[in-house]
Design goal:
The chain is an all-alpha fold. 79% of the residues lie in helices and 0% in strands. The protein is globular and about 55 Å long. 19% of the residues are buried. The model has no long low-confidence stretch (mean pLDDT 91).
Length: 140
C-alpha cells in the first residue's frame, strides 16, 4: 500500500474512533442510566451514584473522544493520539478477558468482547498502517 493511502487509512481509523467514542461519551456522560440499563445494572438513583457513572465511564469515553479529535486536527500529534487510543483499547480488551476468566462467561460478555476486539483490531491496523516516513524530523 502506498504511503499516502496508508496515511488516509490511518486517518479514517481515527475518525471512526472519534465517531464511536462520541456516541459512548454522550451515552455515559449525558445519559448514564441508559448506558447501564443495556447491561442489566441498576443503581440507587442517588445523585452520587449517577455522578459516579458520569465521572467514570463518561470521563473515559470523553477523554478518548477528545484524544481522537486532537489527533485528527493536529497532524503532529496524530501518531501519539492513535497510540493512546490503541493502548486504552488494549487495556479494555485485556480486562474484558480477565472478567471472563474471573467472573464467568455470559452471552453479553462475549458480545462485548467481540465488539471491543474488532475495534481494537481496526485501531491497531490503523496504527500499523501509519507511514512512519511521515513523522516530522525531530532533530535540530
Amino acid at each position: 500500500m502506498k504511503p499516502v493511502w496508508r496515511l488516509w487509512y490511518a486517518r479514517a481509523v481515527l475518525a471512526l474512533a472519534a465517531f464511536l467514542f462520541s456516541f459512548l461519551a454522550y451515552l455515559y456522560a449525558v445519559t448514564p442510566l441508559n448506558g447501564i440499563d443495556m447491561f442489566g445494572v441498576t443503581i440507587s438513583g442517588e445523585p452520587h451514584s449517577v455522578t459516579f457513572l458520569r465521572t467514570g465511564l463518561g470521563a473515559m469515553f470523553t477523554s478518548l473522544l477528545i484524544t481522537s479529535v486532537l489527533g485528527l486536527v493536529r497532524p503532529s500529534l496524530f501518531l501519539t493520539c492513535l497510540s493512546f487510543v490503541v493502548g486504552v483499547m488494549t487495556v479494555i480488551v485485556a480486562l474484558r478477558v480477565f472478567g471472563l476468566a474471573v467472573d464467568g462467561v455470559s452471552a453479553k460478555n462475549l458480545s462485548e468482547l467481540q465488539t471491543e476486539g474488532v475495534c481494537w483490531l481496526i485501531f491497531v491496523s490503523g496504527w500499523l498502517a501509519y507511514p512512519r516516513s511521515v513523522l516530522p524530523d525531530r532533530e535540530g
